[in-house]
Amino acid sequence: MTTTEPLALAVADASWITTENLFRQLDDPAVSVLALRCMDYRNGWRKGIRPWSASRRTHRVGERAWAKNILLPPGWMKRFPEFGMRPIARAIRRFWERRPGDRRGLVVTYPHYRHLIDLARPDATLYYNMDDYIFYWPEWVEPLRRLEYELIERSASTVCVGLNQAEAFRRAVPSAASRIHHIPTGRPPRSWRESPCTAPAPRRRTSLGYPARCWASSARSRTDSTGRCWRRPPRHFQRRRS
C-alpha cells in the first residue's frame, strides 16, 4: 500500500491483537498510525494498566506507528458515549494537530464509535467490521443496528472480514453498497514459511488419522460456512480414542 498524500491515521480501537497487528504492518512513508486501546478502569486494572502507567502516554511502537492506552469510566461506550468518548477524541485530535499537513483518517471497529465521528471530525472514516456485534449485546439489537447502519452511511468505506456480513450490509444499506468490501483477516509476515513445504501429500485422507478433539471457538452463525460439514463428519472422525 502506498499513497502520495500524507495521512495521519487513528485506529479506535486496537484492543484486539489482530487489529493491532494489521495496522502495524502498514509500510507507507506517507502514513502515520496511532493505535488506541480503549477500556474502562476495571478492565485496565485487570490488565495491569494503572492511571500512572507509561502506556497511557502516546509512545512509539514502530518507525511510523504510535500507541496509547486510554482508561475510561464504566459505561463510556454504550450508556453515555457522547461524554465517555471525549478522551478518545482529544487523543486523536492531538495526534492530528502534530501533523497539520496530513489528511486526518479514522478507523473505527465498533458500531458505538459512530459517536466518535462527531467528536473527532475526521476527513475520512473507515469502518472495520470484525464480527456481528448483536452476539455480544443481544439486548441492544435495534439500537445497535441503527448505529451500525448510520456508521456505514457516514464512512468512506466499510471493510468486513466476513463475506456474509458484507453481503448483509449491502442489502441493509444499499446506498453504501459500492463502499462495502470483503477482505479476510490476514496474517503477520512473521507467521509465514520462508520456503514452500516440499513434503508429498498423502494419497488417502484416511491415512492422516483423526483428531482427538476439534475446537472452533464461538463460531456460531458468524462464520461464512453453512456448518453442514460439522453435522456429519467422515466416519474415521467419528471414532474415539480408547
Q: Could you characterize the architecture of this molecule?
A:
An eight-stranded mixed beta sheet has the order 3-4-2-1-5-6-7-8, with helices on both faces. The chain has nine helices and eight strands. The protein has 242 residues and is α/β, with parallel strands linked by helices. Mean pLDDT is 82; it is low at 220-242. It is 29% helix and 19% strand. A hairpin with a 4-residue loop joins strand 3 and strand 4. The N and C termini lie far apart (52 Å). It has one domain (7-190): Glycogen Phosphorylase B (Rossmann fold, 3-Layer(aba) Sandwich).
Q: Beta-strand percentage? A: 15-25%
Number of domains: 1
| CATH-assigned fold name | Rossmann fold
Mean pLDDT: 82
**Number of helical segments with 4 or more residues:** 9
The Cα radius of gyration reads 21 Å
Largest sheet, spatial ordering of strands: 3-4-2-1-5-6-7-8
N-end to C-end Cα span: 52 Å
Shape: globular
**Largest sheet entry:** 8 strands, mixed
How many β-strand stretches?
8
Low-confidence stretches: 220-242
At CATH level 2, the architecture is: 3-Layer(aba) Sandwich
CATH class: Alpha Beta
